[in-house]
Amino acid sequence: EVQLVESGGGLVQPGGSLRLSCAASGFTFSSYWMSWVRQAPGKGLEWVANIKQDGSEKYYVDSVKGRFTISRDNAKNSLYLQMNSLRAEDTAVYYCASGTGTTLTLDAFDIWGQGTMVTVSS
Amino acid sequence: DIQMTQSPSTLSASVGDRVTITCRASQSISSWLAWYQQKPGKAPKLLIYKASSLESGVPSRFSGSGSGTEFTLTISSLQPDDFATYYCQQYNSYSVTFGGGTKVEIK
Lengths: 122, 107
Description:
The structure holds 2 protein chains of 2 kinds.
Chain A: E1 3-7, E2 10-12, E3 18-25, E4 34-39, E5 45-51, E6 58-60, E7 68-73, E8 78-83, E9 92-98, E10 111-112, E11 116-120
Parallel strand pairs in A: 2-11
Antiparallel strand pairs in A: 1-3, 3-8, 4-5, 4-9, 5-6, 7-8, 9-10, 9-11
Chain B: E1 4-7, E2 10-13, E3 19-25, E4 33-38, E5 45-49, E6 53-54, E7 62-67, E8 70-75, E9 85-90, E10 97-98, E11 102-106
Parallel strand pairs in B: 2-11
Antiparallel strand pairs in B: 1-3, 3-8, 4-5, 4-9, 5-6, 7-8, 9-10, 9-11
């Protein structure tokens, strides 16, 4: 079964750090771009970051540049999001996602995890 | 960054209605446009990719059209399971962006 499972969410104080993980199974993880997408409570979807198959290219939404770092370990079929200097506005459900329609470039997200909640509050 | 504008933000419709949602890009994205359906507490589900290609397993009442900057998602005959929120997404740029969403409610 094709699956993405996120973990690592929780409650953190403003200015704190958290590392999210996403475990992939059922598909060739190393062949595809991977992404993080978040959704604040009651709000729409917001793309956070992308990473190329070999980790050589990474892209971020402006609001997290310099604070968040996306990475992957293809040997462990795992995606990560290191989040530093967290703010209240980072409170959201964080989803990992992948587009497996092509290996050539970023694709529409046909695989999503169930999400992990991050709450930034004192 | 490419901005995606969806309309309407909310839509009230009845079972059997034909429903159309519009998405406009701030610059040309060719056909690199996807549509997702999301239900409360669930992850989004891919419906349409490359503007008009139906994802495997998605009912044929869903269809997409458009290119460049104007796109539409059409549900030909709304079913009870279709009441949800729909998002468009451009992936022409590596800095992906989503539209603000359209909530389809029961009339």
